[in-house]
Protein: tRNA(His) guanylyltransferase
Amino acid sequence: MAKSKYEYVKEFETDDRMLRNVYVLVRIDGKGFHKFSQTHDFAKPNDVRGINLMNHAARCVMNELDDILLAFGESDEYSFLFRKSTDLYQRRESKIVSTVVSLFTSAYVYYWNDYFTDLKRPLYPPVFDGRAVLYPSEVEVKDYFAWRQADTHINNLFNTSFWALVEEGGLTPKAAEARLCGTDSKDKNEMLFTEFNTNYSKLPAMYRKGSVLLREQILKDEDKDAIIPTLPETLPGSKSAKVVPALDTATTVPGLQSGPDPISGSVSEAPSGQSSPIAVDSPVVSQETIMQEGSSTSSSEGKKRSIDANEAERHDAEEGPAAKKEAPAFKRMKKGVVIDHIDIIGEKFWTGRGAYILAPEKKKKLRP
Ligand code: ATP
Ligand code: ATP
Ligand code: MG
Ligand code: MG
Structure:
């Protein structure tokens, strides 16, 4: 096709292809979600509908972009790790970041009413920003996720303590903040336990550890757009939390299993938005195993999702030979996006799946 005389303006576009052979990490964050959560009457400190909607939007992003191998979400943010060798949009930064942000935001609005059932759509359009960060080696990638999960813990422990003081203790927000000033995690755990009868380590893992999205084996008939179930409980210490119906007992609810307190050491903490003072080898890593810690989730129909073929085979064995004859589980498995609420700080998480997630770039011919 003949070029128009205006075509030259295309030359003003900058080449923003990101460096090859490094990890691409995209993080999105809600703009002004402090206000957004207030306007939409989010339960404090954790509105389970809001978290599940974030998780659903993130899963839509992963379903669309195969090169994302791992995602981690907390509060109003989500981080997406691309495979090192990704060639999506020839690694053009603006194309990749804008696609992730746009897809996430539209999914958040599209699925809004599935979670906030009493409100047809948000009262105003939510906005998310996004950025790409390049990490040269798996050390930084592992530390990145450790940083975000440590942040989840610090913020959640602070917020849980804060709202307990305000809603149950009757303190003003200012007084509650003053009360928590200078306290470490041990002090806060102690205060929650003695004054509010709350064992922090027994709160849902989804609140304490955030959400991890992985590509694992799932049942083939699993609905990729299945609504992520709502936790059948309210958060202790929060009067504003809404009671939601219990799930089918056959389903496995992520995050309900409790584990040891992820941070048992004394850490001087800041509430939010500040970099974590926790060292990589701090005792944040719990002894929980992946399977114990709610490694499966379920659709609204209550279909059971298993994490790997072995688990599915065991499931079949439990159901008896008739069920096995009907549809052998191992034939119905495929790779899918699953959600979990596990420790990603420390080597335990990466053992077994690190090789897949952090696979080095294959030698390939570069485009001329
Ligand atoms: P910025 O635009 O700079 O990101 P922000 O208001 O979004 O500002 P953040 O530091 O990103 O501030 O914090 C997000 C806020 O959203 C937190 O204050 C948190 O209280 C609120 N929030 C997000 N998700 C939830 C949720 N599921 N339940 C309750 N509150 C939530
Ligand atoms: P890419 O992902 O590379 O942008 P694309 O499929 O979006 O690919 P574009 O070059 O952006 O391709 O072209 C947009 C296409 O969308 C056009 O080919 C056009 O057919 C279609 N389209 C967009 N808006 C309309 C519209 N209002 N009515 C009919 N067709 C439309
Ligand atoms: Mg924000
Ligand atoms: Mg945020």
Summary: The longest strand covers residues 211-219.
